Amino acid sequence: MAKAALIAAAYAALTWLSELLGIGYGAVQFRLSEALTILPVFTPAAIPGLTLGCAIANLSSSLGPIDIFVGSLATFLQSLCCRKLRSFRQKNIPFLSLIMPIFFNAVFVGVEIAALTAGSDGFLSVFAPTALSVGFGETVVCFVLSLPLFRLIENREALKKIIQD
């Protein structure tokens, strides 16, 4: 439970830091906290930790209370999938686990933003570019931050002992 709480606090704090930098919320986002989405590869405690952290972080979302639910659901599902797919590796890299946050955020946040903002433009005309932009930001964070974090933890026994269950 302590690991989950620490992960939740780190996720929320990194999201708020991202928002201070103007990159935390919206159709184009580069949440620093999303680097932590690789942690379910190492510990199941990351599943509730990331989910709770997202719910706490989304209390500040400009999209309102719906973002607390939708964002947390996406985070929960991506974390579950990341954990389940952790053994599928290419050159010892859990690529499928890295892709889960990209997929779930692109779809869930894309649907959420399109549903809230489409108006007369039509849902699909807003969803497609929004999903692509959210997916792009998530891809950058996952491969620029999550992958190095994975390698750092994987290659340092002391870190693995702290994080792994």
Mean pLDDT figure: 93
**Would you state the CATH class?**
Mainly Alpha
Helicity level, as a percent range?
A: 55-70%
Global structural class: mainly alpha
Q: Sum up the overall morphology in one term.
A: globular
**Total tally of structural domains:** 1
Number of helices: 6
Termini gap: 12 Å
CATH architecture annotation name: Orthogonal Bundle
Can you describe this structure?
The chain is mostly helical and 165 residues long. The protein contains six helices and no strands. The chain has one domain: Orthogonal Bundle (Arp2/3 complex 21 kDa subunit ARPC3), CATH 1.10.1760. The protein has helices at residues 2-20, 46-57, 65-84, 95-117, 123-155, 157-163. α2 packs antiparallel against α3 (65-84) and α4 (95-117) runs antiparallel to α5 (123-155). It is globular. The mean pLDDT is 93.
Write the layout of secondary structure elements.
Elements lengths: L1 H19 L25 H12 L7 H20 L10 H23 L5 H33 L1 H7 L2
What's the gist of this structure?
The protein has helices at residues 2-20, 46-57, 65-84, 95-117, 123-155, 157-163.
Characteristic terms for this protein:
single chain; Arp2/3 complex 21 kDa subunit ARPC3; mainly alpha; 165 residues
